[in-house]
Task: structure prediction
Amino acid sequence: MIDTHVHTEFSADSSAPVRSQIDQAIRLGMPKICITDHYDPDTPFTELDFTLDLEQYFPALEAIREEYRGRIEILIGIELGIQNHIADLLETIACSYPFDYIIGSSHFVDGKDPYEPSFYDGRTEEETFRRYFEVTLDRVKSIPGFDSLGHLDYILRYSPNQNRLYSYDRYRDVIDPILEVLIAQGRALECNTGGYKYGLGEPNPSASVLKRYRELGGELITIGSDAHESRHLGYAFSQANSLLKECGFRYYTVYQNRKPCFYPL
Result:
């Protein structure tokens, strides 16, 4: 299957050469790969700079795409860190470059990343989860310029108990509206296999959320490994394939020129 969530040396949190990711995709037999490096501005509480240099990014990837022509098709995407106060900037970025695919992801909430232990200070885990989902809902309602919502329950990767005390049912009053907005606006939900890598035993979002999305009428499902190293490219795709079929999906979605293309599972 085609991996549509891949990071390279252009992302602040990855040192993987672009060619190493592409070469791994070829070894795995993928006909295409989509590079989606981070663009996450206004992140004051991290030492990493997630403002992607787009003037360098696009020419570099276009040259590499030509280099690999005939061996694998390279799609150029981006993972936007969505925040309401920079909505205009994100819309400008989305409209200024010929991306094939744009992931919208909630990373920073209240100026902090759930990756940081301090994110959980002064709040119970349940309060923290609810705050994360409420902020994500507000962003999905307000920011139109992305194709698929990335790793909806990203917070589970880093919370003190990960997903051991979590259940979709406890937060369905705020998760269901997120899914309903995506469906109403014709946008996709990502099945991010990074959850398997982080020991959750399922992707992000959880199987129960993926199943609920399908029950509500959602059909646009993208698949990405969130690989920051080549050894994680296509991680647990066979498990994700089986799970998505169990949830009622018959195909997955790959965006090209910002248009959905469908591939059988």
About this structure: The beta strands are 3-6, 32-39, 73-81, 101-105, 148-149, 188-192, 221-224, 251-256, 259-264. Helices lie at 18-27, 54-67, 87-96, 125-142, 172-184, 194-197, 207-215, 237-246.
